[in-house]
Amino acid sequence: MAYENILAAAENGIGVITINRPTKLNALNRATIVELSEAFNAFDEDSAVRVIIVTGSGEKAFVAGADIAEFSEFSVEEGEQLAALGQKLLFDFVHNLATPVIAAVNGFALGGGLELAMAAHFRIASDNAKMGLPEVSLGVIPGYGGTQRLPQLVGKGRAMEMIMTAGMITAEEAKSYGLVNHVVPQAELLDFCKGIALKIMKNSPVAISKAIKAVNASYTTSGFDVEIVAFGESFGTEDFKEGTTAFLEKRKAEFTGK
Ligand code: COA
């Protein structure tokens, strides 16, 4: 199937999905989210594909977040819909996929990018990768599961600090937090992930899909719904207008707290 914003190719039982908008640092606009959902679904339904790797094109970014230009004019309702639809189509979908998903984090994984990596079953980073949830610097909150999955992966205190400071951590820090499992040189990232995929493929696919379901069952939380509502509410604030406008105008935001 031909896609506009992503590449998808399967070889030797491994499906590789590459987000391919390098001039926008692979930011997730609506069309990309829909294509990603379709590609994950197609690989999941193909019994020849035993492991899926998701990565970003180019050497700079995995995904630099949701596409700020696309949502900067959204209302409260549109904001809420954005989070709810994205979670359903992509982030929850990947989280619950029966086929194992490895995120190969090859550069910036910010906002929706880190949220996509966290929705994958586990993550491997290249040594230049930088990760963070910068949403509050735009006057909004993480809306694709970040407020839930980050504390699950790194603990509440570290997650709170990362979310409140909107800062980035290095690949090595992410490894020490347990956010990524391994850090490897960028040129070796895909082969390293494929090596792990080969180990997974020696095992029973049906047992693996049941294991994914069982592991996920211990992380069930109603917080995802709270996140969607709070994300939507952010769109009604002056701080959100200021934060997104400042990003698009390439200047520092001046927040008033309104
Ligand atoms: N949404 C839309 N466009 C984005 C984007 C995003 N999340 N992240 C980057 N881009 C675009 C930039 O606007 C720029 O486009 P332009 O060349 O048409 O002006 C292009 O990608 C390159 O980004 P730029 O900011 O020039 O690269 P940089 O190396 O100076 O900075 C980042 C890299 C990742 C630090 C910076 O792009 C950034 O802060 N991005 C936003 C991160 C964010 O807040 N994500 C959360 C969104 S909810």
Automatic annotation (TrEMBL):
GO terms for biological process: fatty acid beta-oxidation. InterPro entries: ClpP/crotonase-like_dom_sf (IPR029045), Enoyl-CoA_hyd/isom_CS (IPR018376), Enoyl-CoA_hydra/iso (IPR001753). Keywords: Lyase. Pfam families: ECH_1. One of its GO terms (molecular function) is hydro-lyase activity. Belongs to the enoyl-CoA hydratase/isomerase family. This is Enoyl-CoA hydratase. It comes from Flavobacterium subsaxonicum WB 4.1-42 = DSM 21790.
